[in-house]
Fold this protein.
Amino acid sequence: MEPVTLDCDASLEPGPNAPLDTIEHAIRCGDIWAAALKIYFNDAKSAWKGHKQADWESLDDLLGDQRLLANLCRPIDIDPQLVAGALREELSLLEINSRAN
């Protein structure tokens, strides 16, 4: 079986009359994006918590110029500033919760 290649730069909004394979393609691209964003956030969260083996690249990016995050957001045409704000808010909530415990 040949590996599946996905052009995730294509529109993720196939429309109501799109063939099933186009809809499945859009779902796969969304799944890939969600998995990549989850890794980005988990890496940032580990660094935020000060784990010794944390990869600081995501946290540095999130708190800095957000070039990596912009690259993650580009294929689905979502505003990286919006995503960054939500991720930073989540990190702040983690900090507040850890102080409360």
Q: What stands out?
A: Helices lie at 20-48, 57-63, 67-73, 80-100. Residues 37-100 form one domain. The mean pLDDT is 81. The radius of gyration is 17 Å.
